[in-house]
């Protein structure tokens, strides 16, 4: 599965959805949204940070957490090494703090390019620590989801992250610390079935793949015909799972409004004075 648009050397890229040819400069200026069909292409974690938060405000945490191979799963170490070499990351989630219009946040961003954004023990731990940091410092947490689900190479170690992350969400809720999840393409399986779907506010990018099982498994299990947009952000929104679908260009301002409103009850001292 390709994670980004095909690119001719130099000035042009091709949309993965409509196959139209785009100027690379215009494509980047539109934050990788196709000007013809509106398809939102996947972003790296760094692009997400650059286009969402205040310039230069992101500070990464837990940079030394690395996955081990608890089950001695065949070829797992090789796949980890290949993903590290490909992305420059040590796992599928990057976490830290940042500011958004002056409000400090605890944030985590999943990068699909690292083993499909799968949630293993390191990704789950970073999500949990992101929520706990928000709880400790009384600041909202914002998490960008992009994952095919739990990491099969870690077996139960991976599945344990579902309960652990949901527990952290619940502790935030009991203390009145807001948690906002943003579903990007794709948000699937174990991630959707755990912390992502129990956020206080759930936003989604247009046409993001959102579901539990893959489309082939879903078709095999269903006794009725699914709508054409089944397992999309639009279907999840109509079904009540997603609060609002937000085009990427409007995401920063929408998040800022939410953080300002939901974080108003938190101590003023946690805001950054510009």
Oligomeric state of the chains? single chain
Strand content: 15-25%
In angstroms, what separates the terminal alpha carbons? 43 Å
Biggest sheet character: 8 strands, mixed
> By helix and strand content, what is the structural category?
alpha/beta
Mean pLDDT equals 88
Q: Looking at the structure, what is the overall shape?
A: globular
The low-confidence parts are: 269-274
Radius of gyration: 18 Å
Fraction in helix: 25-40%
Quantity of strands, as a count: 11
How do the helices and strands follow one another from N- to C-terminus?
EEEHHEHEEHEHEHEEHHEH
Number of helices: 9
What does this molecule look like?
- The chain is α/β, with parallel strands linked by helices and 274 residues long.
- It contains 9 helices and 11 strands.
- The strands form 2 sheets. Strands 4, 5, 6, 7, 8, 9, 10 and 11 form an 8-stranded mixed β-sheet that branches. A 3-stranded antiparallel β-sheet has the order 1-2-3.
- A hairpin with a 6-residue loop joins strand 2 and strand 3.
- The N and C termini lie far apart (43 Å).
Identify the notable features of this structure and list them briefly.
274 residues; alpha/beta; eight-stranded mixed β-sheet; three-stranded antiparallel β-sheet; 9 helices; 35% helix; 19% strand; globular; disordered C terminus
